Amino acid sequence: MTVTPSTPWESAPSGPVTVPPFAVVSGDQVQQALQGREKQIVDLVEETYRLHSAGYSVNPPSYFLRFPDRPSSRIIALPASIGGEAGVDGLKWISSFPQNVAAGVPRASAVLILNDRRSGYPFACMEASIISATRTAASAALAADRLSRGRQRPTRVGFIGTGLIARYIHTFLAGTGWSFDAIDVHDVSADSAAGFRCYLEQSGATGWIVVHDSPEELIRRCDLIVFATVAGRPHVYDPSWFAHRPLVLHVSLRDLAPEIVLASDNIVDDAEHCLRADTSVHLAERLTGNRDFLTGTLADVMAGSVTPSADRTVVFSPFGLGVLDLAVGKYVYDEVADSGELHVVDGFFHELRRYG
To answer: How much is the CA Rg of the chain, to the nearest whole Å?
Structure first.
């Protein structure tokens, strides 16, 4: 997909304002629309990053709803608007309840609301945990490709944290042409690590699969490292573990001590978003009092204005942008609509006469 708007915000469609039909898109429909289309979604995410960098988006800070009686849990609102071909406004509402895992229920659940640009009326409510995992994995796969250029391409990948996000990231790496001599795995839960290993074997992953009891040996062995944990604070402190200068996809954002961040080239998706909420790069900013340790954004790398060093560890820290959810969500909506399978809720909007 290539989108080159002539202005940052193309005009909303002209003509009379009408109330759009309201549809509900299920998780099954979302998965069917996305399955096997890793390359297309990575291209879509790449173009969305370009639009965002060029100013063709509105992406305010995420809003965190926290609970005094449930300190490990949160629900996050990500409002956003994207221009270009997608041309849609909306909101992702995503919860993270880590205690769900012990009950065999996924940690995260989410919905995505899409709003019509002309009337402001919502026209879709979509299951969004799959959309969220997909855009996260596509962003990671894009970063792995772009940030490995100019250095030896990684041949051994390690996953620290083995939940749904790790599975999706592996799927997107495999779906965009990556193969590895070995895949290393570590999780604080032995059951989770075993389950991820089973997934890798069933997916036909190439190379040896090695499960580690601690992160140190995994980090030292791998030249591509994926952090996909639920850590709320740093638990990896020793910069010497990274002496071999790996590429790190720090998707979970809070695993690395500031000392490791400061010893690395740091690429983010958006500095204003990422340096918030006690992320590792946010802690590094607090420690130093500046942002000089930031090398640039992934969009800068794609544009060729920033080139990470081949002689330092490179850390990609993506906070996760709501515009990515909108772009992927609109792609799914259009696919389902084109198939004729939209579940429209008749009469969802009832009071449509201003004076009765």
So the answer is: 21
